[in-house]
Amino acid sequence: MVEIEMIASELVLDYLTAERELISHALRTLQERTAITGSVTTVEPFRSDQPQADATIRLQHPNGTHRYWVECKSSIDRKEHLNKVRQQLTRLGEDGLLITPYLSRELAEYCRTIDLQFIDLSGNAYLHAPGLFVFMTGEKRSPVRLANDEPKGLTNSATLRVVFAVLSQPALLNSSFKSIAGAAGVSLGTAYNVLNDLQRRGYLIDSGGAGRRKLLEPDRLINEWAVNFPVTLRPKLHRRRFSAPDPDWWRSVQLDAFRYAWSSEVAACNLTGYLKPLTQTLYVEQGDIDSVIRMLVKQHRLKPDADGNIEILEAFWPQGDIERLLAPPLLVYAELRALMDPRADEAANMIKEKCIDPTFNQE
């Protein structure tokens, strides 16, 4: 049974608007350069988990008329993207056409090599059908900007939550948008938008079939997340600072009634056995932070201290699967790097090599 996910009516309309605008601009440019006219016959209302075209178009040329199934891509910058598009269009069983804002000369030549027909907004094109052959390449990128065309990057808290979820649990990437949204604690529409943006930025390929989504360059995305988390998401986690008379207070914490997880140096100590924690960072389930602080004040005489080496923050990920009361390795890695301390950097690299990289090196 195929699960069709309805993201939200306004989101679907945005999606269709962007598709129609891209197709319309590309057909207009093709007509200006070649006198070939095109018309859209159908636009799909939304993607399901099975391969389907974004639209079908009809091209009219002096020697006849030809119909194409269309795959729209807001960004193509590597040959692997083109291979995936060709595979997806081939599965449709009809002549397929890629429409994208721009293809470089090299990528246009590669399209001809793999027999992937395309048109872009700059007038580059490769088309062949009975009575029709067009191959134009080398045109400069068009200044046209489409609706929703600009990649947003990891610039807000919600985006960081979604990327954290899929980097921490790579298998989640091929779950439903509903599952991804639940794991990240965001809306369904946000999950869709973030994955779409990752695809635009070249971090994600979606081939349209089972196991369709695949991360490209996860190492670069991990580092981008680690750079942005301390300045964008972390300050919003209601963090509070304390100090304690006993520097080893954290070793005897008893918080059995609560969900919590150690991060940064304490987590590194547990994961690597290498780092002696000079700071302690504790994440607590949202809503429990005040109760946990009261208990720790009573147990270990913590006191508020703006310059203290103890931080307590609200967790931003589901804590039902905490392993050994430690935060996910990606979070530990990011916080260690943010300390700007050579000893912490070494521990961070050890954690990345031991706990993070292996999850992306299983293929």
Explain what this protein looks like in three dimensions.
The protein has 363 residues and is α+β, with helices and mostly antiparallel strands. The chain has 3 domains: 9-136, no CATH class; 157-231, Arc Repressor Mutant, subunit A, CATH 1.10.10.10; 237-358, no CATH class. Helix content is 39%, strand content 18%. The protein is built from 11 helices and 14 strands. The strands form 3 sheets. Strands 1-2-3-4-5-6-7 form a 7-stranded mixed β-sheet, sandwiched between helices. The chain has a 5-stranded mixed β-sheet with strand order 11-12-14-10-13. Strands 8-9 form a two-stranded antiparallel ribbon. Helix 8 (264-272) crosses helix 10.
Strand percent estimate: 15-25%
Shape: elongated
Task: Give the uncertain stretches in residue-range form.
Answer: 1-16, 45-50
Strand order of the largest sheet: 1-2-3-4-5-6-7
Mean pLDDT: 85
State Rg.
25 Å
Topology, number of strands: 14
Helical proportion?
25-40%
The topology string of helices and strands comes to HEEEHEHEEEHHHEEHEEHEHEEHH
Separate helix tally: 11
How far is the N terminus from the C terminus? 27 Å
Helical/strand content category: alpha+beta
Summarize the main sheet.
Answer: 7 strands, mixed
